[in-house]
Each structure stands twice: as structure tokens, then as C-alpha cells.
UniProtKB/TrEMBL annotation:
Name of the protein: BamA/TamA family outer membrane protein
Source species, domain of life: Bacteria
Stored InterPro entries: Bac_surfAg_D15 (IPR000184), D15-like (IPR039910)
Record flagged with keyword Oxidoreductase: no
Matches recorded under PROSITE patterns: PROKAR_LIPOPROTEIN (PS51257)
All copies of domain Bacterial surface antigen (D15), residue ranges: 581-767
Record's GO cellular component terms: outer membrane
Biological source species: Hymenobacter lapidiphilus
Pfam family membership, one: Omp85
Cell compartment(s), UniProt: Membrane
Main subcellular location: membrane
Keyword Membrane found: yes
Annotated keywords: Cell outer membrane, Membrane, Signal, Transmembrane
């Protein structure tokens, strides 16, 4: 259209465009006799011609002191000035709103104080060891704008030659000298003021752990001799005017433990219980003194250590029985200070939460297989045995309806009851492990439960479990879980439909057989998400699970005979006339959360996840128990596919076996990757873009799960003459990557901090099998072999296969 304008029209349009650009530059909004400040540059140069140590860091520090910051600009245009001008003189309306929301007041050159900025730069350079620097400013004036170029010239940096710690023969000086090996000051390092500040804090922390309760970092003084040739000697001294109480370490005289403190506290008027030197209030009706003393690391007649005080606070809070815990330290009145040591009384005050609670919660299962409501009732006793043991009893009931053609009309009803006892210590007789260097309370747990599942037209199943184990943390980011005993017993009663399915699927009959699972497991978790200020956070969880190995060894050593299952024909050792499973299983999960904004409260993140899992049945088992097999797909997995709707390998359920539902789409190996970008949209509303890929495979090939491809021929009745692809669901290194199911989509999250509702829409991009009918629709020139379109279920791709998911919480 522009090419059709007359010459005068083109000149007019060009003039209007230039006028618009000039307006966007913001210069016409600058008052008369004023200039717009457009920014500053910093040039760092060496007077000696030698390289400047940490030049990039020094340059950044100098740029950081420049003020004010100029108006934001894009290609010379400053639209924020235009929006600001729209609101000048207005108190309401669109112009006022745009000015407040998007506007920016002009930054004038008259606001720039070059002398102040140069002084700040000189201060930064001196702090970095560049003594006697020079900073010049060069003002560049234009018609309506002004800028400043700063040039900083430095001499050779001063480096530390020698470091001298206090030499007096006092207890304080001796303790300061004892910390020298971990000093932050190193011979040969450039002088840096911040390092000296950090060194004072380090020494103060060391002294606090040596009893110096009243010491402070300001009591330390650094004297620097810079008369040497670009070198300096550092002398660390204690100021001569510090209070006497700051110069001596303190011993804990009396330690009071008050487990029922309130603002109207009267418990200390009662006679205390004396336990291991502690004064324990009020009595042992709620907590045994031993339980609280085991979580306390302040010991009577021991040196005060800040590390032990912090550890005590953390351990007591992690018991889960107290709402608040605080500590007070006061000089001991009844025990005067000695020549070298002072004495403190410590009071640890704990405010309890209610001992017992009952909570009911309504839940909604939104998986792709079954959808329906459930209710959970939880009873909690926070000191069941008066030792801060937590007893949790959960009762759950749910009724869900099947989704999709295969599960249409199927109802899944579940009832479960389980109990868990959490003991706040490691029960490992005859040993007593307290993890003295950990801030977190280790636990021993005991658990037992029973679950009943009634899946109409398929089966009724009972699952019993019993176990015990340990959980502990050595750091805030590290957690470990060891469960030596994880026993399960599974029994099923099958309906005729399911029996017919099992008759055609030997592997399924094996995995659903009544059996014992004699398991043990260990899990290690590393989680940086607790470090909320970190821009990049890593999560890793790795676990290993073993079952049946000890039982098999004992049976084989005892010479016990194997028994043959009449249904499967498999021979195996039994326990109480029931077979037990034997396998090894590994689960690995890696996540990375990268916040794209420097703002720690921002929800704009790029999140990746990788899942790798493998289970190997052997000796007493040829198939993993169904409960232990992997499935893939669904709201928290590859979201473009139904839960357990992919794999194993290239396998796809034939149309004639649609009643198999998802039961045959499980495997021994899992590989899954997810990538998701999350963006803040509005308050409490976030958006997401994601892509998922993954599949499952078998360790051992299963002819019952072969994939058939057409040979182009049909029988007289019109059925497909198919031939198996030869993979039988087995994992193969040369083809597994081509067998990944891939999907992508968009999502919306309503995030109110304590509750997240997630809506995802995903479409399949790639199926794991050789899909002739898909290729035919993508390329009309490729004919569909006769009958093939009815042999398998249709596999719609793109928008034809759109799948909507509703979930609670984030998928990962």
C-alpha cells in the first residue's frame, strides 16, 4: 500500500513517522533550558600497564555506584516518558492510570552529582586495594541530552605480605590464635575490605563456639601497614576498651527445660524434676524428661557453644510438638565468675501445640484412569508414649468411575486404614546413634496398613503392609530414608472378564498372583528448593529397592523344595504356601528449576525433569509384582496420553482386546523427560508451556505384547494378515529413542500458595509405534493397507488428539 502513495503522500507519511519517533524519544517532554540524562560509561585503566586483578568485578562495582539511572530506552525511543506525559496534571482517568502503570518521569542532567559518584568510585577502589586512585568525569553535552564518561586510573594493587594474630598471653588471644588455620586472609591475596569484615565475623563465630557469649565482631581491630612497596602487613588485635565479660568464656551452670511455657507461665513456681542435671518443668505427664533432654544439646557444666544452642532450637522444633521454642541466657547469680570463666544460666522455653487432633479432608482424584471423590480422616497424637512420639491413623474411602472406552462403566471403590508411629530417635540396639552434628531430629518409623480395592467387572484386591525404618537429615538440603523391612501381601479375587484377560496374558497372571513382597529400600534426596533465594535450584532423588533375596538364600540353604503354580506352571519357593517375589529396582529422578527473573519472588521459571527407573525380576520371579511395575502417561507424566496409555515399547492394545484397559501397558524400565516454562500472568494465576516425552519397556520380551504390522494382505473374511515387529515390548539400545511418545501443550495454574489447581491441554506429537494410518493421513499418497485401520484403535495426532487434564498441585 505504501508503494502506491504519491510522492507528496510518501513525504507526508515519512514526516509523520519521524514526528512519532521524535515523540517516542521523549525529548519534547523535557523542560526548556534542561537536558535529559542518557547515562554514563566507566573506563578502567592501569597506570602501570600491568593487568588489573579481577578487572570485570571491579568494573561492575564501579558501575553499581552510578546514580541516577537514566530513563529506559529502546532503539533511542523512550515510550515510558510518553506515558508519563499523558498523566501530567491528571488525578484520574486513562492517562493517569497509564502514567502510574507504565510511565516514568524524565531523569534530568541537573540531578547528576558527578563529584559524589567519583567519590564513591574512589572509595570502592581503595576498598579493593587500589590505593591512591584517580577518577575523572567527562560531561558530553548535546542539544537536549547529556551523558557522563568516567575514567578510573589505578596503580598496582596492594597485596598481603604477612599476617600477625594477637600475641598476648591471655586466654582470649590464645583462642583467637587457635582459629588462624581457617583464616580468610591469605598471604599474596589483594587487599579487600569486605574480606576483613568477613574475617571478623568468622572469628566471632569461632569464639561463640568457645564460650565467649558476650564477644562481638566490633571488638576486633585490623591495623594495616601500607608503607611497603605495594605490599602490606596486617596486624589483628583486640581493642583495649572491650567489657571484661566479653574477654572471658562462659560455662553453663544451670539449664532449665520448660515444656509448657505460656505468657502467663506459672510452671516454674512448681518443684522441678531433676534429670541428668537439667531442671525440668512442669512434670512428665505430657513428655518424659528423657525425650526432651535427648533433643537438647545445652549441657550443665559444659562450655557455652552457639552451635549447640542453635542445634537445640532446631531439634526441638523438628519434634513437631511445639509451636514456639526460645532460649534465654543470664549470668548466674549464685555462682560468681572465676578468674578465667564466667557462668550462665540457660532457660529453654517451649510452647506446646495441642496433643491430639482430628482432621477430615475431602479429596478429588483427577487421574486419567479413574475420577471421583474421596475422604480422608486423620487422627494425630503428638506424644503417644510421652516421648514426643507421633501416632498418625488415617482412614480413607473413595469411589471413582473409569474414564475412556476401555473403562466405561467400571467403578473403583477403595477403603484403607493405616497407622504410623514416628519415634524421635534412631532405635538401633545395642547402639545409640544421636547424629550429634545434625540440626535435624532423626526418626524411627513403624507402619502398618490394609487396603481393599473393588474394581467392578475386574477384581477385588486386598493389600496388607507392615514395615519399619529410619529417616534422617545431615543438612538442610539432604535427607535419607532406610527401610530394612517393607512387607506386603497381595491377594485377589478375579471376575470372569479379568480371568479371560489373564488367560491370554501369562505375564499379567504372574504379576497379579497372590504373593508376598519381602522388600527393603533406601532413598537419598538432595533438594535445593528449600534455598528460596537461589536462582537455580536442583532436586535429585535416588532409590534402590530389593525384595526376596534373603528369603531365597535361606530357602536354598535349607534345601526346601520349590512348588509349582498350577495356573502358571512356574516353580518357586513359597512362604506360608504363597510365593514371594524377588527383584531389584532402581528409581532416579532429577529436576532443575531455573528462575528467569532476578526477583526471588518471581514465578517465571524454566523447569526440567528426567525420570529413569529399572526393575529386574529374577530367580523366584519372572515378572515384577503389578504394584511395582512402571506406567507412563497422565496428568503428572506425558500429559498428551492417558495414564498407563503408552508402551511397553511399540506395543499398542488391539481393538479386539480393548477390555484389557490399561492393565497390559506396564513395564520394567521407564525413561521420561519433561520441560516446562512457567510464567506469572496475574495475581494467583500462572501460565505454562510444556513438552513431555517418555515410554516404558520390558526387560524380558513378552510375545503376548507383540506389535503387529500389516504385510498388505488380508484373509477372505477381511481380517488383517499382520506380522509381529519382533520387539515384544523389550528395551533395545538401538531403537529405544525412536519409541518415545512425545506430547506438548499449554497450562493454566491457579496458585494461592497453599493450594494449586492445574489445568493442562496437551496434544500428541509422536507415537512410539509404526502407525500406518497416521502416516497415511499425514501423507495422502501413502495408501492404508486393507483392514489395518480396524486392527488397532485410532491414534489421533495434533489437535485431533487434544487431551484435557485437571490436577492438584504442580506436576513436578
Amino acid at each position: 500500500m505504501f508503494s502506491r502513495l504519491t510522492r507528496s503522500g510518501r513525504q507526508l507519511a515519512a514526516g509523520l513517522l519521524l514526528a512519532g519517533l521524535a515523540g517516542c524519544s521523549g525529548l519534547k517532554f523535557i523542560p526548556d533550558n534542561a537536558r535529559l540524562y542518557t547515562g554514563s560509561t566507566v573506563t578502567l585503566k592501569s597506570n602501570t600497564g600491568t593487568p588489573i586483578p579481577n578487572e570485570a568485578v571491579v568494573q561492575t562495582q564501579l558501575e553499581a555506584v552510578i546514580s541516577p539511572q537514566p530513563n529506559a530506552s529502546i532503539l533511542g525511543m523512550r515510550p515510558k516518558l510518553y506515558f508519563w506525559h499523558m498523566g501530567v496534571g491528571k488525578t484520574k482517568g486513562l492517562g493517569h492510570w497509564l502514567a502510574n502503570k507504565y510511565g516514568e518521569e524524565p531523569v534530568l542532567f541537573s540531578e547528576v552529582d558527578t563529584a559524589r559518584v567519583a567519590g564513591l568510585m574512589l572509595n570502592r577502589l581503595n576498598n579493593d586495594g587500589f590505593f591512591k586512585p584517580e577518577v575523572r568525569s567527562n560531561i558530553k553535552l548535546e542539544d537536549r541530552t547529556a551523558a557522563v564518561d568516567y575514567e578510573a586510573r589505578v596503580n598496582q594493587v596492594y597485596r598481603i605480605k604477612e599476617i600477625f594474630f594477637p600475641e598476648r598471653d591471655t586466654l582470649l588471644d590464645r583462642d583467637i590464635r587457635a582459629t588462624q588455620a581457617a583464616s580468610l586472609l591469605k598471604v599474596g591475596d589483594p587487599y579487600n575490605l569486605q574480606t576483613f569484615v568477613n574475617e571478623r565475623v568468622r572469628i566471632d563465630n569461632e569464639l561463640k563456639n568457645r564460650g565467649y557469649y558476650y564477644f562481638a565482631p566490633d571488638y576486633l581491630l585490623f591495623q594495616v601497614d601500607s608503607t611497603l612497596d605495594n605490599q602490606l602487613n596486617v596486624y589483628l588485635k583486640v581493642k583495649g576498651s572491650i567489657p571484661a565479660k566479653a574477654a572471658q568464656p562462659y560455662v553453663l551452670n544451670r539449664v532449665v527445660l520448660n515444656t509448657d511455657y505460656t505468657l502467663e507461665d506459672t510452671t516454674t513456681n512448681k518443684t522441678p524434676i531433676n534429670y541428668r542435671g537439667y531442671r525440668y518443668y512442669p512434670d512428665e505427664s505430657m513428655f518424659k524428661a528423657k525425650a526432651i533432654a535427648n533433643a537438647t544439646f545445652l549441657y550443665p557444666d559444659s562450655l557455652y557453644r552457639r552451635r549447640r544452642a542453635d542445634q537445640t532450637l532446631s531439634r526441638l522444633m523438628s519434634l513437631g510438638t511445639f509451636r514456639f521454642v526460645d532460649q534465654q541466657f543470664r549470668p548466674a547469680r549464685n555462682k560468681p565468675d572465676s578468674l578465667q570463666y564466667g557462668f550462665l544460666n540457660a532457660i529453654v522455653r517451649m510452647t506446646q501445640v495441642p496433643k491430639k487432633s482430628l482432621r477430615a479432608e475431602l479429596q478429588m482424584n483427577t487421574s486419567s484412569l479413574f475420577v471421583g471423590p474421596g475422604v480422608v480422616v486423620q487422627y494425630r497424637n503428638r506424644s503417644a508414649l510421652r516421648g514426643a512420639e507421633q501416632l498418625l491413623i488415617n482412614a480413607k474411602a473413595s469411589i471413582e468411575t473409569g474414564q475412556g472406552d476401555a473403562l466405561s462403566g467400571v467403578t473403583s471403590t477403595q477403603y484403607s486404614l493405616d497407622a504410623q508411629l514416628l519415634v524421635p530417635r534412631l532405635i538401633t540396639p545395642p547402639f545409640n546413634f544421636r547424629l550429634l552434628n545434625s540440626d535435624f531430629q532423626p526418626r524411627t518409623f513403624f507402619e502398618a496398613g490394609v487396603k481393599y480395592v473393588n474394581r467392578t467387572t475386574y477384581f477385588q484386591q486386598n493389600v496388607f503392609n507392615l514395615g519399619y525404618g529410619y529417616t534422617w537429615k545431615t543438612k538442610l538440603t539432604n535427607e535419607q530414608r532406610l527401610q530394612p523391612i517393607d512387607l506386603q501381601y497381595v491377594s485377589s479375587t478375579n471376575e470372569p472378564v479379568f480371568e479371560r484377560l489373564l488367560a491370554t496374558k501369562p505375564f499379567l497372571r504372574q504379576s497379579f498372583r497372590q504373593q508376598f513382597i519381602l522388600g527393603s529400600n533406601y532413598t537419598y534426596t538432595y533438594n535445593q528448593q528449600v534455598l528460596e533465594q537461589r536462582r537455580n535450584q536442583i532436586f535429585f532423588s535416588g532409590g534402590v529397592e530389593l525384595s526376596g533375596n534373603l528369603a531365597y538364600l535361606l530357602k536354598s540353604l535349607s534345601g526346601a523344595p520349590k512348588e509349582t503354580d498350577a495356573e502358571t506352571g512356574k516353580s518357586s519357593y513359597t512362604l506360608l504356601n504363597r510365593p514371594f517375589s524377588q527383584y531389584s529396582k532402581v528409581n532416579l529422578e532429577f529436576r532443575n528449576y531455573y528462575r528467569t527473573s532476578a526477583n526471588p519472588t518471581s514465578g517465571n521459571k524454566l523447569v526440567g525433569r528426567l525420570l529413569v527407573g529399572a526393575g529386574l525380576p529374577y530367580l523366584n520371579s519372572s515378572v515384577l509384582p503389578y504394584l511395582k511395575q512402571f506406567g507412563i502417561g497422565g496428568p503428572n507424566s506425558v500429559r498428551a496420553f492417558a495414564a498407563r496409555g503408552v508402551g511397553p515399547g511399540t506395543y499398542r492394545t488391539p481393538e479386539e482386546n480393548a477390555d484389557a484397559g490399561f492393565y497390559d501397558q506396564v513395564g520394567d524400565i521407564r525413561l521420561e523427560g519433561n520441560l516446562e516454562y512457567r510464567q506469572d500472568l496475574f495475581p494467583y494465576v500462572k501460565g505454562a508451556l510444556f513438552i513431555d516425552a517418555g515410554n516404558i519397556w520390558l526387560v524380558n520380551p513378552d510375545p503376548a505384547r507383540a506389535t503387529f504390522v500389516s504385510n498388505g494382505n488380508t484373509t477372505e473374511e477381511g481380517a488383517v494378515n499382520g506380522v509381529p515387529d519382533g520387539k515384544n515390548g523389550q528395551f533395545q539400545f538401538n531403537s529405544f529413542f525412536k519409541e518415545l511418545a512425545v506430547g506438548a501443550g499449554v497450562g493454566l495454574r491457579i496458585d494461592v500458595q497453599f493450594f494449586v489447581i492445574r489445568l493442562d491441554a496437551a496434544v500428541p506429537i509422536r507415537y512410539p509405534y509404526a502407525n500406518e494410518d497416521i502416516r497415511a493421513r499425514q501423507n495422502p499418497d501413502v495408501p492404508v493397507p486393507p483392514g489395518l485401520e480396524n486392527f488397532y484403535k485410532k491414534s489421533p495426532i495434533g489437535w485431533d488428539g487434544l487431551r484435557l487434564n485437571i490436577g492438584i498441585g504442580y506436576p513436578f
